Amino acid sequence: MSSKIRRIGVLTGGGDCPGLNAVIRAVTKTALNRYELEVMGIEDGFLGLIQNRMRKLEWSDVSNILTLGGTILGTSNPSNPRSYAIKRKGKTEMADVTDRVVEHVQAAGLDALICIGGDGTMTGAADLLKHGINCVGVPKTIDNDLEGCERTFGFDTAVNTAAECLDKIHSTAMSHHRVMVVEVMGRNAGWLALHAGVASGSDIILIPEIPYDFDKVCEVLKSRSRQDKRFTIVCVSEGASQKGGDKVVAQRIETSPDPIRLGGIANKLAVEINACTGLDTRATALGHIQRGGSPTPFDRALATLYGFHAVELLMTGAVGQLVVWSSGKIGEVPIEQVANKQRLVPLDSPLMAAARGVGTSFGD
Ligand code: F6P
Question: In this predicted structure, what is the pLDDT of residue 358?
């Protein structure tokens, strides 16, 4: 056991997702109960470290939060200490404020940080490691796209939410004999679209890993129509694109480490499908609803396992590691190995093969 660790900080960075509070609870309760550590909750992710905003977490602060969506600590997206937006003479400039973060960590007497986040947060943690700050990572994201980790917490809840919405879309699609194009999140990875699409029996699933052939998509729709299948559900990932085409960008946030926000493919596709097939078509984008709400029991259990394991790693001196689920086991991989990387759906995915087996089209 590491005798050097007395006080730890915990932060939630990047986009929120269901299960963050369950991890904060597991980290805090394990630290207090098993090791009598002090726990400081850092507010709004790395922004709280930059601005020196943190508060002590007691048992009572983390009681009754297991089932709560969001994060009691708050989070922030555009706040990478290496590239932080500062206003000077009315102009926004990006500055490296890592030294300020190191000062605040040392002044607060934090012996280690538990960073709960996705690839952006792990990139920040990897930088802090180089500056001598002990960090352990916990893999969060509804996108399930963290390198080295087969299951991030938050993903199961997002799949449930998206599948439930797709089920609801089914009944209205049937009544009106329509093509319904439903856009789900996932950034550049198709995990969410694949799992929610298969779980809801979507007829066409379009994911970023397989640029779609628009003529093939229309062929499937027309052929279904000829067979008297009077409605079709298309589940499209926000990162999907036509062969030779570009992804549809909703917004650019220049101060964010990853400035591109995807979105809008469902609308674009619905207009094109209607023009090509003449079929009555509507678009729905599920958006941030996929990030909200109470975590599923699976995510609560996974978050608890991750939070507990993160403290165990710290106390055994295994800093610089990201807790992961891999090959059916809890384990860890070096944070550096994960930073700035995304795990995509492999083209030989067994779930994709099964979907094809039951007649689902991937637009290829
Ligand atoms: O990474 C999680 C995620 O929800 C992506 O699926 C999506 O592309 C992005 O975050 C949206 O980010 P924001 O909350 O900044 O709109």
Answer: 98
Spans of the chain below 70 pLDDT:
1-3, 78
Q: Is residue 143 annotated as a catalytic residue, yes or no?
A: yes
pLDDT of residue 268: 98
Mutation test residue for ligand 1: of 143, 157, 191, the one with most atoms within 8 Å of CB: 143
Distance CA 347, CA 264 (A): 25
Residue to mutate, 76, 161, 185, 207, ligand 1, most ligand atoms under 8 Å from C-beta: 185
- For residue 1, the model assigns a pLDDT of 52
Regarding the beta carbon of 77 and ligand 1, being less than 6 Å apart is answered: yes
Write out the two tokens for 301.
């259990």
Query: What token pair was written down for 265?
Result: 């493919």
Write the DSSP string, 170-207: HHHHHHHT-EEEEEE--TT--HHHHHHHHHTT-SEEE-
152 lines ligand 1 (CB under 6 A): no
How remote is the CA of residue 187 from the centroid of ligand 1, in Å? Answer: 7
First to last CA, the chain: 53
Please tell me the predicted confidence (pLDDT) of residue 79: 74
User: What is the per-residue pLDDT for 2?
Assistant: 56
pLDDT score at 46: 96
261 Cβ closer than 6 Å to some ligand 1 atom: yes
